[in-house]
Amino acid sequence: MPTETRAGLVDSFGRRHNNLRVSVTDRCNLRCVYCMPENVAFLPRAEVLTFEEIERVVRVATTLGIDKVRLTGGEPLLRRDLPRLVELLAVVPGLSDIGLTTNGILLAREARRLRDAGLARINISLDTMDRGKFQQITRRDDFDRVIEGILAAKEAGFHPIKINAVAIRGFTEDDVVLLARFALEHGLEMRFIEYMPLDAGRLWEREKVLFAAEMIELLETGIAPLKPTADQDPRAPALDYEYTDGSGRVGFIASVSRPFCMSCNRIRITAEGKLRNCLFSLEETDLRALLRTGGSDDQIAQAVRDSVAAKWEGHEINTARFIQPERMMHSIGG
Hints:
The structure is a single chain. The chain is an alpha/beta fold. It has one domain (9-332): TIM Barrel. The protein is 31% helix and 18% strand. It has a 12-stranded mixed beta sheet. Helix 3 (107-117) packs parallel to helix 5 and helix 6 crosses helix 7 (212-222). The radius of gyration is 19 Å and the shape is globular. The chain starts with 8 loop residues before the first strand and ends with a helix.
């Protein structure tokens, strides 16, 4: 193993990186319109990193200052025996937090095993409380299974459970208050995400973004006034608020209206082992090639350092210079 690096993963803008998001599969059992097309070719199984390869990369990354890992997809619960990967990661020295982002469809059968394996936190995607609209967004009729998964996660003892909802102007305004009320009723934490240009059909337009400020206004009218939380994490992507009546919290990931690039602490590994230093990266570093051709831990560590060192200032969504990456969201990892 490489020796511990005290300086950590710091880029040329002084941003220190401690958060690694690992996609365990590009496959998904939904076809959300903002994420992937109805017909898509998935990676051959042999090209996807094994659990042992993922564990090795994480072990190396922790020596560089990574202490948080989030498992993503595609839909990560489509990866057979995912709790075994959680068990492998749970004993990695220096790793203090393991999270999971899932669409919830398979969660009812796995929630307890994941919790017992050492999973600490869970985020579940749900964009609407309307079954018909759910089917329009996902092109599947699995609303009831998602609700079942959310309740199973709660029963398994996960807390807090965060519900992620992508907000699209002209389509999901009515869902903002309904989702927030559902979350309050069940002791969950809502996270609203501004619609980002990573959609399958490249139909994204700025005019379709429902901005965080507008959602705050909807919630204050429909539920209660909001105030910023006192314990904001300056490196977290979400702007966190709490209702002044003490009923709960809500967060907003405002990637378009309030980019948080200059406080970003995240790097990503795709299912086939490509390291990306930004969600919107146009370049990648091939870690799988190092893993499968005898590369040393020091070489892997240096590849990670080099990628972070080359990280750009920001994604420039709000400028004419923005270039949408070729990869769609499902093949990047959330």
